[in-house]
Every structure is written in structure tokens, then in C-alpha cells.
Amino acid sequence: MNAVIELLNSHRSIRKFTDQPIPQETLNTLVQAGQAAATSSFIQACTVIQVNDKDTRSQLVECSGGQVYVGEAPAFLVFCADMQRLKLACEMNDAEINAGFTEQFITATVDVALFAQNVSIAAESLGMGVAYIGGIRNQIARVSELLDLPELVYPVFGLCLGYPDQNPEVKPRLPVDVVLKQDSYNDNGNKETIAEYDKSVREYYQTRTGGNKEMTWSEQMSGMMIKEARPHMLNFLKEKGFLLK
Amino acid sequence: MNAVIELLNSHRSIRKFTDQPIPQETLNTLVQAGQAAATSSFIQACTVIQVNDKDTRSQLVECSGGQVYVGEAPAFLVFCADMQRLKLACEMNDAEINAGFTEQFITATVDVALFAQNVSIAAESLGMGVAYIGGIRNQIARVSELLDLPELVYPVFGLCLGYPDQNPEVKPRLPVDVVLKQDSYNDNGNKETIAEYDKSVREYYQTRTGGNKEMTWSEQMSGMMIKEARPHMLNFLKEKGFLLK
């Protein structure tokens, strides 16, 4: 174990920040660290919108179901999967983009996530905390309109950044032998291991909430997975030119 | 700038490795660092298959279009988006999963990418090099069969790991002002900036290939984006229970 791995292992979402601002120069450094991540066939399909405008921020709080830290964080970035720039690259060479493939949706989305994880780690290495905000997909059409996103661009998630004003515990993860398999997928024993893990998650929530929340991982997951999951997504993405074939 | 950010900025894909093996304990440490990444609503939807079997490796070389380092790397991991484990969590609580939503496809895919980026950074911090292998999606159905992947699981990409036996240059990225925008998407000036960037990419390839390859970024992208992109993906994913609605 070294200092980098310790940093990675110490990640927890931060949702309360001090007033200390993040200089623009630092934000540029973070984004450049994001750009340094691997990119599928060099497509560089991530565009970041830094949202400074107070009114836009308030609207993004609403779009993400009232997560106030989206408005309060010293910096808020929206990470977009961007094939519009690839369309421009085609136009610059008198070529016509053949967009709409599911494969392209995957590569662009993965590009964005690798990029954002670098930004997060760079921020944490400077003593900041971050929280990913998938909640902006609650009202993804409104978010896209707010940020003037053209076709072939979609907002994957937001990221709150700032200096932590809280110190939450690291959440226990699944035992590694449920997650790492040798040579083939094999879920023998998963059920028993998850049942054990469920106990440690229950304890984590009990400790953290002073006994108010008592929930295992599998309970939490099943409560969520029986519901519809943002059923507007597919239509929205198709309208933006993704997932057509 | 600090040592972590320098590490992030020094990333380049490594495709040639020394014989030095990676102990299983180290691989477990890397995967646990992967697990420490943020996970959407705690779903922990990433499963990693470590492929040791020589025959499976050879077949994976074929599946990824003859990338020999997939067979040669001291370790090869396949990162899978896994909702099968969430189905199990539902079953453990007598609930029925409501799968097939595009939203779930996004969260699972993003989970995998954040996880893998942590694994990569942890590996690089220990002096290893990595290469993401999206090429396994060339023959994704065959890869899934080889690894016995059940429904609600798909292989997003592979990752070669090992100690570098080459020292390629870092590839120049797009200028930060093309990638980072203030308050709204705005591509004014992108074309001019990309035209400038094109020159530096051409130089990079010229230097790296001793003048044999002369290609700008926009040329490379347009050459690729006019083609079909793995048109089998959508059907395959639907058969696995993804992107149905």
C-alpha cells in the first residue's frame, strides 16, 4: 500500500463544504488531469460545463431533487458525453458522421467517467471532497436546456467540489471475492457472502444514524431495484441522437 | 501540482510488459482500490473477471482483433457491468427486479468505469502500466460465452496490467478551453482551436513514427466516425436484458 492507494481507499462523498473558494487555475488543473485519462480510440468525448451562475445552480438543485449542496458547493461541474465535437471533426474534413450507434454511446459514456474519476482523485489529492450527482438525470431534458446542450451531447452526471466541512466514514464495500472472479463468472457463495456483508452495512448505518436507520445492503438494493428507473432516459437520449441503432 | 496529479498526467497506454508477475495479493489490493470509487446509489455494479487460463487468453486475443498484449500481459482483467448481483439482492428479499431501463445501463456502466480507473491509477502508482481494451466488444457475444456471463451482465472492456517494457510518450490532449466551458455549452472558437491542435497531433505522430504516420486528430476522428461502430452491440445488450426501455 502506498499514499496514492490510501487516498483512493479513503474516498467518501462530501456534501457539506467550507466557504473556501477554488481558484479557476486549480479547476483548470483538475480538468487537465481529467483529460489525461485513457480515452477510447482517442475520441476525447468528454466536455465539462462549470456552472457558476447562481440562478442556473438553483435550477440544478431542483433538477436533482433538492440536493442543496449542488447549489452550495464552491464548484459544480456537469460532465457531458460529447459526440458533437466529433461531428465537427468530420465537418472539418468534409465527412459525414455516422452517429447513433450504441457502441458510441458506451465509449463516450466511459470516456466521461474515466475523465471525471481523474478529476475527483486530483481534487481529493489537494484536500478537497467531491460528490457525484447522478440526480441531474431526474430532469435531464431541463438540464440540457439550461446548459444549451446541442444534439449528440448528454449530461452524464454532475460533480460537487470543495473543501470538506464534514468527515463522514468510509462506507464498507462488498467483500472482494464477490467482486473479483477467476476465469469465469461464478456466483457460487455470493448469497452467503452478501448475507454476511449485509450485517456490516446494517452496523454502519446504525452507527452513523445513532440507531435511526437499520438497513442491509440487499434490502436497500431490492427497495430500489423493484422501481422504475428514470423511464424518460431512453426517449431523451434518442432525441439527442444516441442509442438509435 | 502534486505527486498524485503528476501521476495522473503521466498516463499512457502500455502494450509491452516485462515478465515480472503481479502477485495475487497485489491484484486484490488493486481491485479493492477499485471498489473504493464512488458507486451510484451504492449499487456496486462492477464485477471483475481475472483471466489466467492460457486458452481463454488466446481466444480473447482473437476476440479483440489480434491485440497480442491481451495474451502477453502478466494480468488481464475483464470489467463487467453486473446487475445480476442486484437481482440476487432482490431475491434475497423476496422482491422482483425491474430491470431493462436505460438509466440502469448508464449507472452500471459508469460504476464500472470509475472502478477501473481507480484500479488503473493504483497500478500506475505501483510502477505498473495498463491498457484498456475496448476491442473485446468486437466479439462481445463470444467473450460473454467464454467467461460464462449470465443475463444482466456485460463485459465493458478489458485491462492489461504489468510492468512496462516500453516508454511511449504521453499523447497531447485537446486544449482545455475546448473541453471546459463556463455556464453553457458554447462551441465558438472550437474549430479554430482544433485546427491548431491538429498540428500538434500531426507532429506527435511524425515524431513517434519517424515520419511514417502523418495524421491530425480531426482526420483520425473523421476516418473513424464515418464508419459503422460495432453494429451488433444493441441486439446483444437487449438479449442480455439491457436497454429494453
TrEMBL record, chains A, B:
CDD domains: NfsA-like (cd02146). Gene3D superfamilies: NADH Oxidase (3.40.109.10). One of its GO terms (molecular function) is FMN reductase (NADPH) activity. Transmembrane segments: none annotated. Its EC number is 1.5.1.38. It is an enzyme of class 1 (oxidoreductase). InterPro entries: Flavin_OxRdtase_Frp (IPR016446), Nitroreductase (IPR029479), Nitroreductase-like (IPR000415). Keywords: Flavoprotein, FMN, NADP, Oxidoreductase. Residues 10-163 form the Nitroreductase domain. The keyword Iron does not apply. Pfam families: Nitroreductase (PF00881). Belongs to the flavin oxidoreductase frp family. This is Oxygen-insensitive NADPH nitroreductase. It comes from Amphritea opalescens.
